[in-house]
Design goal:
Elements lengths: L8 H25 L4 H22 L11 H21 L5 H8 L2 H12 L7 H22 L6 H24 L7 H22 L10 H28 L2 H7 L2 H13 L6 H17 L8
Length: 299
Amino acid sequence: MPPKTQLDRTAVGLMVLFCTIWGLQQVAIKFGSAGISPVWQAGLRSIGATVLVFAWASLRRVRLFEADGTLGAGLLAGLLFAGEFALIFLGLEYTTASRGVIFLYTAPFFVALGAVWLLPHEHMRRAQWAGMALAFAGVLVLFGENLFGPEGDAWIGDLLIFLAAMFWAATTLTVKATVLARASAEKMLIYQLAVSALVLPPLSLVLGEPGVFAPSAAVWASLAFQVVIVATASYLGWFWLIRHYPATRLSSFSFLTPVLGVLAGGILLAEPLTPAVFAALGLVGLGIWIANRPAPAAR
């Protein structure tokens, strides 16, 4: 499938589905943290997903071990991926899912900035910048009252997750700007999962984490959701998308995730759904529409 310059219905539908899953991820991490240490939980997730992606690739006869020049870029992407999720899981120990998600979803701006130098063929028009700004304004409306008034140690978690956003953007740019862009989605993902599966458990031991300290049905269910749905199915789809569609346009769509995450919190955690939620939905939807409009035809 040749790379495309616009998002078609397939890409839009998949991005809405994935953004919903990623919004639920914040709730799942919180549930899992009630019984599993943060970095250990991230490591278990990567180990389980590595096994599943290997099985999937074997069934589809995808070649994962052929020499294709992707090893260096793949290891770099894997280390960035491990750093991203170590920071996310640690950050959520200090801050709420609602606070954390706004910092995590600054990543599309880092992708857009990096694309200026690394992906010149994905030039950002002024309308796209304006659309992304509108979408981010929607997120600020939703979380603004808390963004500028952190209490206690919340700023530590905010900072960790803000750094995680930079790691996420760096991973996306590594995939798009190197030979990894020619690799299969399965190979892109297995580099990241396998490296993080090797890095995160030893990091957990170095940090002195207790590991699994209060197992329960909810804890194991949240981990299973992260392994099967998030880290395997949605990430395979995401890396297939960024291989075939413009990274900047896909990243602008990801602003749906924090809003959908708040909706999930309202449904699953009985968090209040205020008028700001619906205002944010409107701004995010408008921003995504503007950012993904085709360029006007030249006269």
